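Q: Start with the shorter request: fold the first protein.
A: Done. Sequence, then structure:
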Amino acid sequence: MAVYTEVPDEELETFIASYDIGQVRALKGIAEGVENSNYLLHTTLADYILTLYEKRVNADELPFFLGLMEHAHSGGVPCPLPVKNRAGAALSTLASKPAAIVTFLDGISVRRPTAAHCAALGAALAQFHTATASFPMQRANTLSLAGWDDLASKIACDAQIAGGTVAGLVPMIHTTLANLHGAWPQNLPTGIIHADLFPNNVLFLGTTISGVIDFYFACTDMLAYDMVICVNAWCFEPDGSLNVTKAQALLQAYHKIRPLRADELAAFPILARGAALRFLLTRAYDYMHCPKGALVKPLDPLEYARKLEFHNRIMKFEDYGVRV
């Protein structure tokens, strides 16, 4: 989450008047994340999250994201529920941007997840995959292998001009891409994946998950790929080592709800390299193109370069030392 677009007071009052959510008491920008402009909205009735969708989000895909949240919520996933205005629409316009309001969820995101947090996350991810199996809409993953080629080319071109940190990552990026093209799995179970389930997108009360948020990378892809994204995001220590205890807690909790197939486990190292490369690429691109004046700090691409180096040394799932 972040703030790129400021909302004029008069426009906000007119916008909120089209909803049955009371009157505005306060609007506070949320300065985390990198994609959209997000605000904590306090009204006389309750608290909400107001999102203005920036240019990186395709407005035509917003019905998918909002419909997915509604479907997941109805399936028992603890996620925000889109709020519809008096016309019955969950999507509107504010400050010349597509905008939506969703319910506010109590809880905090954890900076240093424990094994208990990872177990809760594994169970929640499997619940999400199970609940959304009946969701009728699909969305292609534009940030999968084909999309990585285009992004890598842009990064290489820009890095050649700018130099610095990102330029040193270009050889690793090209080598990894070439290897993945020859090994990327083709026939694993697919469905709706969250695709961005980092610790800042999960809210906890203690070690119980109270909210899964930020569905704006959700798409149709391999379910095991979603799980590997979570392992990369939740189970590595600051020194770049994999915390096997955390990874095992996450995978075992997931496996109890949606049993993992043998071919999914066999593909784990390749999927892990792909997941590491995906976030290395987007972080490197954002590092070089962060808008001036935005209340957001670009995330470190080197973190995912280190994770990619780790996975490049792993040849088979058993080498991780994790039991499912």
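Q: Next, the second protein, separately.
A: Sequence, then structure:
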Amino acid sequence: MADMNPTPPYSASRYEHLREQHRATLWIPWTLILLGIWMMLAPVTFGHLNPALWVEPSGGRGVWFSDGTHTALRASLMTWSDVLSGVLLVGLGWRRLRPDRPISGWLACGVGAWLNAAPLLFWAPTSAAYLNDTLVGMWVIALTILIPRMPNMTLFMRMGGARPPGWTYNPSSWPQRWIMIATGFLGYLASRALAMYQLGYAPGIWDPFFGEGSRRVLDSAMSHSLPISDAGLGTLAYTFEFLMGFMGGVSRWRTMPWMVALFGVLVIPLGLVHIVLVISQPLVVGAWCTLCLAAAAIMLPMIPLEVDEVVAMLQHVTRARDRGEGTWSVFWKGGDPSAAEEDEGGIELVELPERPGVVLRASVRGFSAPVPLLLTALGGLALMVLPGLQGVGGTAADVFHLGGALLLVVAVIAMAEVLRSARMLAVLLGGSVAVAAWVVDAPLGFALVGTLIAVTAAGAALPRGPVLDRYGTWDRFIR
């Protein structure tokens, strides 16, 4: 039985198009079936139940069931997870051999997401189990919602322009998205290396700058506060981020608002939480971690690079609501595309080999770095390194580390033209650090230099700087 009965409001031609698309991608459900068989055999293939291959998490972690007395339970849970996931993939793949079964496609995608999460939840006792589950999980997600597009999207997607009304560029274009995919994948690699140590698969962690600092951070009480590996959780988030960069067409800001919203949540609020946790390491743990800083540094520019697409999506949903369309329906299925404009003269990603400079400039439209904000960012960086240069520790160093890091973060976020007004927060932060320099017990020279840097950084954030593009009704918020 099909998950949806092929009746109006969709036309017969749309169902015929759906069937044609299904015939062209019939290899996908068969591949899901093969991957399901692979997963059912994985516990035997990779020795999930072989005690000689089991490892223990780093730092004597004893949360959940990851201590040494429960390793066999972890192995059993991973075995059952793989076998049951395989059975589900075989069954759902078989159902997807027929067209117009979207629920089966979404459930199969859910199995792919579960395969990425299960090794973290169960603290997979072998590296082979972690590697196999995450790779197969990514393939399943790609085969269910990336390559064939969202299940049954052919039935309700409405054709139209790709550029939001009143905008001078398209925030969902491939030149805009490839850089998000690339940075997301780099963040995935950095977080995965950290997770390998926490999960016990790697005996140590590489750190060219802070020596044992990385080990202290990854094995700290702060890191152990979660029942799963925090680095593994970051890896999972980056997995979804770079995969979602591939999802949808060049007008996904209006055809898939729900996906843009989810992508925005992963990148913006969760990204900010990740960054704040990393910059708090010297305060809470008293040490830095090179790869942790690298992951945060990769995440930081992703926020201003993604926020414009979220703004375009919110504008589209708001316009649809004002026209009387159902907000919930528009959020999940798109909406009237009549207001969208043709993206004439837009740069194509295929031009990258011949015109790399032009494509790179198109990739960062909406993100500009006026000199005042660059000075604010440099001021924040100077505040971060000042305690180390002058040999100051204690509360004074903590204030400058945290205040400088937050100043740098705000300055970079305000480089997104749609968030340019956020620079006022940098003014507040700079002023707060300048005042705090005299409240904490700091040497006179250190306080004087810190105050000068903080006040200069705050003052530099006052001018708005040039805004190079237009954002429709959002222009009135860019002050």
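Q: Describe the second briefly.
A: The mean pLDDT is 88. The radius of gyration is 25 Å.
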